[in-house]
Design a protein that fits this description.
There is one protein chain. By secondary structure, the chain is an alpha+beta fold. The protein is built from four helices and five strands, in the order H-H-H-E-E-E-E-E-H. It has helices spanning about 1-115, 120-135, 145-160, 210-220; strands at about 165-170, 175-180, 185-190, 195-200, 205. A five-stranded antiparallel beta sheet has the order 1-2-3-4-5, with helices on one face.
C-alpha cells in the first residue's frame, strides 16, 4: 500500500506539468487566433476601402465620359454656328457689293430731282441729301441703317407729290407766301396780295391779277385757314425751257 501512495504522489507533478503546457498552448492558440482575426479585419477594411475607391473612380470615369460627350456636342454645334456665321458674312459682303452702288444711285437720283425739278424747300431737301452722302462712307453705320435713311428720304419726296403746302419767306425786299402743289407746280404771292408768280423752267413768270386771288385762296386752303374748296390754277407750259 505504501508503494502505491508514493506512485500516486510521483504522478501528480507530471499531470500538473501537462496541464500547464496545455494551457499555454490554448492561450497561444487564442492569441494567434486573435492576431489572425485582427489581420483579417484589417484586410477586410482595406478591401472595403479599395472597393470604395474603385467605385468612386468608376463613377468619376462615367461622369468624365458624359461630360466629354456633352462637350463634343457643344463643340460640334459651335462649329456649325461658326460655319453659318462665316457663310452669312460672305453673303453680307456679296450683298453689300450689290447694294452699296444701288444706294448711291438712289442718292444721285435725289440730287437730280432736286436740281432739275420744281425748286421748293431747297434748303431742307439739299441738307437731307448732303447728310445721306456723308453717311455712305461711314464704317460705323450699318448697311441696313444707310438703306433705311435713303428710303426714308425717298418716301418724303414721294409724299410731296400727294400734298400741298404753304410757307412764308423773305426774298430780297419782298415777303412772299409760297404755295407748293405736289411736285409739279410752285407759286408765290406778295403778302400784300398785289402780285403773284408761277415757277417755270425759265424762272418766275408773273400771273394775271385774276389768278393772283386764286393763288392767295389756295395758300389759305393749304394752311387750313379756310374751308377746302376748288381752286383753279394754271400750270407752267411743258415746252418751256430754263
Amino acid at each position: 500500500m505504501k508503494y502505491l501512495v508514493l506512485s500516486a504522489l510521483i504522478s501528480l507533478p507530471v499531470a500538473a506539468s501537462e496541464v500547464g503546457s496545455a494551457t499555454d498552448t490554448v492561450v497561444k492558440a487564442n492569441t494567434e487566433s486573435a492576431q489572425s482575426q485582427l489581420r483579417i479585419n484589417q484586410l477586410d477594411e482595406k478591401t472595403r476601402e479599395l472597393l470604395n475607391q474603385t467605385r468612386e473612380a468608376v463613377a468619376e470615369s462615367r461622369q468624365t465620359q458624359l461630360y466629354n460627350r456633352q462637350l463634343s456636342a457643344i463643340i460640334a454645334s459651335q462649329s456649325e454656328e461658326l460655319a453659318s456665321i462665316a457663310s452669312q458674312i460672305e453673303s453680307i459682303d456679296s450683298t453689300e457689293r450689290g447694294v452699296l452702288p444701288l444706294m448711291q444711285d438712289m442718292i444721285d437720283g435725289l440730287v437730280e430731282d432736286i436740281s432739275s425739278g420744281v425748286p421748293f424747300l431747297l434748303d431742307e431737301r439739299t441738307v437731307r441729301v448732303e447728310q445721306l452722302q456723308a453717311l455712305m462712307p461711314r464704317a460705323d453705320v450699318s448697311v441696313a441703317e444707310k438703306y433705311r435713311r435713303i428710303t426714308e428720304a425717298l418716301l418724303i419726296e414721294v409724299e410731296y407729290g400727294r400734298t400741298i403746302e404753304a410757307w412764308r419767306k423773305q426774298e430780297s425786299d419782298l415777303a412772299y407766301d409760297y404755295l407748293r402743289v405736289g411736285r409739279i407746280a410752285l407759286y408765290r404771292a406778295t403778302i400784300d396780295g398785289r402780285s403773284s408768280e408761277r415757277w417755270t423752267p425759265a424762272g418766275w413768270e408773273p400771273l394775271d391779277t385774276s389768278e393772283t386771288s386764286n393763288v392767295i385762296t389756295a395758300v389759305k386752303v393749304a394752311r387750313q385757314s379756310v374751308t377746302p374748296q376748288l381752286v383753279i390754277l394754271s400750270l407752267p407750259s411743258a415746252g418751256a425751257s430754263r
